[in-house]
Design a protein that fits this description.
By secondary structure, this protein is an alpha+beta fold. It has a single domain, classed as 3-Layer(aba) Sandwich (Aminopeptidase).
Length: 193
């Protein structure tokens, strides 16, 4: 079952962080802030009372893009469809907020995640050099959200049912400006689904 995370889930979210990432982990304090004050949606996959994975979406006012900021599935649960279920739930959440695109960054060597994202309809929009803490590059991927309207040449449809032109994404790798909230400035990282 996919549900919204709550503060009582923080210990389980921290365990997933520790099992999924070698560095640049979200702390208990980070999760608490995000769950109580952030402009986020944190979704968890729970089965039998155990949380097997989570997805953290960021939203910005007047920006039509949801950003998949952090995404992790416990290593023992990978390959069981949890990652895809969470990704599908993220798309539904973004659509429910009338957003038009979902964007993420992923390591080029994370083959399992890349297969899942491509199968879900994401495409690469740029390579961002020196993105991760270990100076590895990242692939920025994006997916246009919405139903496809076969009568309009396959253009995605807005929630109001009007066809919109395909999203155009600038191919920049500009970093955030200094002075932004330290949590917002963290680079997202995605564990293999």
């Amino acid at each position: 079952m996919i549900r919204a995370a709550c503060v009582s889930d923080i210990p389980a979210l921290r365990r997933i962080e520790d099992d999924s990432f070698a560095a640049d982990r979200l702390t208990r304090r980070n999760f608490h802030h995000l769950l109580t004050k952030g402009k986020v949606s944190c979704l968890v996959h729970e089965e039998g009372g155990q949380i097997g994975g989570y997805a953290l979406l960021l939203f910005r006012a007047r920006v039509p893009i949801a950003r998949l900021y952090s995404f992790a599935v416990l290593p023992r649960e990978r390959g069981n469809g949890i990652g895809r279920a969470l990704l599908d739930a993220c798309e539904r959440e973004a659509l429910g907020r009338n957003l038009t695109r979902l964007r993420l960054e992923v390591r080029p060597d994370n083959e399992a995640a890349l297969r899942m994202y491509r199968a879900a309809g994401f495409h690469e929009i740029e390579t961002v050099a020196d993105y991760y803490e270990d100076h590895a590059d990242a692939l920025r991927m994006e997916k246009a959200l919405g139903a496809v309207n076969p009568g309009k040449g396959g253009a995605p449809v807005t929630r109001a049912g009007r066809a919109r032109s395909p999203a155009k994404s600038p191919l920049t790798s500009r970093r955030r400006l200094p002075g932004r909230d330290a949590l917002e400035a963290r680079k997202p990282r995605l564990a293999s689904p």
